[in-house]
Amino acid sequence: MANIGDAKFQGQDGGPRRRESSVRGGQISIPADPHFEGNAIEVRALRSSISDAGMLMHNLSLAPSMRDRRASRNSFGVSLPIPRSPRASRLSSDLAKEKVEAAKNMAFAFDIDGVLVHGSRLIPEAARVMELLNGDNELGIKIPYILLTNGGGKTESARVEELSRILGSPISTDQFIQSHTPMQALSEYYETVLVAGGDGYKIRQVAEDYGFKNVVLPKDILAWDPTISPWSKLSEEERKQAKIQDFDKMNFEAIMVFADSRDYATDMQIIMDLLLSENGRLKTKSKTPLENQLPIYFSQGDLLMPTEHGVPRLTQGLFRISIEAMYKSLTGGDLERVVYGKPELATYKFADEVMKQWMKEIHNEHVLPKNIYMVGDNPQSDIVGGNMYGWNTCLVRTGIFQGGENDEENPASFGVFANVLDAVQAAIKKELGKEFKFRWSDKINPVLHPEGAWGTKCPSLFHGESSAMAADPEPTRHIYLPPEILCTIFSYIEDQSQANATLRSCCLVCRQWCSVATPFLYREPSIKSGNFAAFAAAVISPINQPHSQRSDLGQYVRTLDLSELVHHSTNSMTAKLLRAVRQGLELFIAPGRSISSLNLLSISKCQNLQILDLSLVLTELSFGDVKNATKNLTSLTTLRLPKNTSLSLAANDVPWPPNLTVFQFGGDDPADIPRFAEEFSWPEKLTSLTLHNCKSLTIAAGQAIFGNPQLQQRLRRLRITSDNNFTHFRFMADLVNVIPKVKWLSLPGGDVNSTIIPTLATLNTQLELEVLRMEPSLVSWVFPLNEFKRALGSSLPRLRHLRVHVVHVPSVSYDSVVEEITLALRKNAEGAGYDKAMLGEVFSIYP
User: Which Gene3D superfamilies would you find in this protein's record (predicted)?
Assistant: First the structure.
């Protein structure tokens, strides 16, 4: 990579290896799941009353209006990982083999409200269920179960402590899922978030425990500006607990509704303000709210919930519907949102991971039981979700459902029961036999009576056949190359012209070679329109991918060059790619045509980014938004703005990236610079500046820029380009006087060519200029050979390289003049102390 500034990276057109992908037309499909194989119960596809999806086992659509694709509107095109928590394990007891295996091959998922408790009151049969599943049964074995609720608003530890007290049995946080538990994965993508719902300020602790760094509650904003919701009042105690900041200077990155709202007026007002805002800033209004809508997440979608009141109460689903209706009335478009909780797919994928971890905890087997029974009271969430996910569903009459034999629209696949105990006993009899005893008895204790259980045949702890273990394999000689040796070899391959093809071949040799070659293969991918979809599918993990199966290829990507892509539809995919590669990304070149605020949000997470090139973007991008996105990128050294991004004083208070040394801007805005040049703050460490395609760079603008004391002292490289012929560049000849410490200078063609060298020849000051380039021009000019020689002897004692366009020379022999210029430059450079052997080409001509 000879010139990183040009950002052209060579590679094979095929790009990285392809992986099967169903990405097309802006959709991300959920692949078939092995969970549905085997004993899954087939249930007729039904329409949920709380989801816009035709089926809940749906596609996650990027375009919510595409109803003909049977897609849920639950997506911004954002990969939502399902986190896994490390948990300790213990050995299970050696008990009766057949029944133990059957008991470990079944599990339960319980809803809480209306199944186990009513508010803070215990449903009597639930206590016996806990005893039975925790070991008070014929085998004395724990039958795995998890609690899966659409409730929330408290930390998992607080809710588990409360439930353990009510149920009279210990519940672990490792077997407990609230509606917002899977949302902790979002903390990897967002820092500044509005979190709504819950009692008082308790929800702040929940969000902070999940890893969100700047959590703002609606009450904080109301305390900051009471006029934002004029009909809501805070008590003095609430004001003291509020965390007030300059919210009108803050860019919110997402909205999250964790629990039921306690103040509909305030919560709805502030949420709508942000949904209609410009880049998530309060007291602003977006011109295109449908294109740049702030991401919003709801923890669940239930319409009703059972309480001690007796008649079910309204809950978060109605709050969401209200927000959607208001948004559509004000914008004319559908609200893009993500809903978690039952019956949404992401929650059940998360439940699978929790169930496997709990199996490892109690039985030391990290597997998913084949027969899972969902016990719930709400046909529209518990039963719909369980049916669609292939679980056996049990509907109880102790909560919302009070109907006949079964729910007509969403029937439970295993049956309807009076209470949770009846449901659990029926399931156990089906799996373990009708004669199974629901009480522990010492008489059938296989530890005291071993012949009834294991007898004399105890299988290996490794579940392997003894005969297979006894036979020694034939001796084989292996030539082993340590990974560090392979890394050295592959680093040389990386520099070759056919590097990608060779590295792909290396991946096929063996698993070890593949693991070493893969990082080299993905380090600098060559991305074109033909391989873009395949590359994205390989790097981006789908929303429903378990954490253990998520792709880690993104961590190897150092360069993401999308300069070959110019279509608008890459915006959402670009944001997802940036999130996937943010860990190691060092150089990013944005695609042409457009870039959205969603991309800037993703860019702000790339902490190792060194070069950010937005110069190909044709749409207008706010200078303040770019500075806000990059201000915390401590590794960023190079920033190139779009040509239509105008510098302004509005973002003067926003800090620059602390280590920015190379900056490029351009377009038509330089004409306005004289108005604010004295107040404009340049990056503190800036040493290289490019004015790109400045069509209206006037004498006044040039003097205002280069007369800035900051630039005069720090600037070492200056490049000015243009796509037309200049007639107002007489001041260019005086640039070297204004910025005397510049060592590398590149100027556009036109009149500059005929004025710069004669002006330099008349200067009495010795400059530090080492490289001078005059870029191609349509204007024909004669190279001033004599003036150039005089300049070398006076003002340019350190000049070592000159590059010009094809020009007329004052001689019949073109080659002899070129040779004369070359010899003069070499003599000049050697006199300045440059190593002759390292000097290289001193005079070159643009082709």
Answer: 1.20.1280.50, HAD superfamily/HAD-like, Ribonuclease Inhibitor
Beta strands in 149-303, from DSSP E residues, in sequence order: 176-177, 192-196, 214-216, 254-257, 296-298
Q: 300 and 432 share a domain?
A: no
My answer on whether 330 and 199 are in the same domain is yes
What's the domain range around 271? 181-339
Q: Which of 309-318, 433-442, 734-743 has the least mean pLDDT?
A: 433-442
* pTM assigned to the model: 0.49
Instruction: Return all residues near 252 (Cβ < 8 A) that are at least 6 apart.
Output: 192, 193, 194, 216, 274, 277, 280, 281, 282, 294
Distance of alpha carbon 702 from alpha carbon 735, whole angstroms: 9
Residue 653 pLDDT exceeds 50 = yes
pLDDT at 468 over 90: no
Instruction: Tell me if 529 sits within 8 A of 593, measured CB to CB.
Output: no
Please tell me the distance from the alpha carbon of residue 799 to that of residue 763, in angstroms, as a whole number. 15
Same domain, yes or no, for 332 and 206?
yes
> What is the structure's pLDDT at 81?
40
Does any domain span residue 212?
yes
Residues 789 and 133: their CA atoms lie apart, in Å, by 95
pLDDT band at 723 (very low <50, low <70, confident <90, very high): low
What's phi and psi for 487, nearest 5 deg? Answer: -60, -40
Alpha-carbon gap, residue 504 to 498, rounded angstroms: 10
User: Tens of pLDDT along 177-209?
Assistant: 999 999 998 998 899 999 999 888 889 999 999
In a domain, residue 404? The reply is yes
pLDDT digits (tens, 9 = 90+) for 442-467: 444 333 333 333 333 333 333 333 33
CATH number, domain with residue 422? 3.40.50.1000
Q: Is 18 among the domain residues?
A: no
Confidence of residue 579 (pLDDT cuts 50, 70, 90): confident
d(CA 735, CA 789): 20
Q: By the 8 A CB rule, do 564 and 528 touch?
A: yes
Task: Give the pLDDT confidence score for residue 538 in this predicted structure.
Answer: 85
3-state percent helix, strand, coil for the chain, nearest multiple of 5: 35, 15, 50
DSSP 498-510: THHHHHHHHHTT-
Cα-to-chain-centroid distance, residue 763: 55
Q: What is the pLDDT of residues 477-502, one digit of tens each?
A: 555 677 778 888 888 887 776 787 88
Say how many domains are in the chain. Answer: 2
- Note the pLDDT of residue 95: 41
Can you read off the two tokens belonging to residue 691? Answer: 């004015």
Domain boundary among 413, 445, 477: 445
What is the structure's pLDDT at 550?
A: 59
Q: Does residue 228 lie in a domain region?
A: yes
Same domain, 185 and 334: yes
Distance CA 588, CA 580 (A): 13
Determine the number of helices (DSSP H) and then strands (DSSP E) in the chain. Answer: 25, 29
- The pLDDT value recorded for residue 463 is 35
How far is 837 from 794, CA to CA, in rounded Å? 25
pLDDT score of 372: 95
Whether residue 817 is predicted with pLDDT greater than 80 in this model: the reply is no
Radius of gyration of the chain (CA): 34
C-alpha 723/C-alpha 515 separation (Å) is: 47
**Residues 327 and 210 both lie in one domain:** yes
Say yes or no to pLDDT of 597 above 70.
yes
* Domain stop point among 388, 411, 445: 445
Within a 13 Å sphere around the CA of 391, how many CA atoms are in the beta-carbon half?
A: 30
Report the Cα 670 to chain-centroid distance in Å: 35
Same domain? 229 vs 189: yes
| 381 shares a domain with 331 | no
Closest CA to 840 of 770, 735, 790: 770
Considering the domain architecture, whether residues 380 and 302 belong to the same structural domain is answered as no
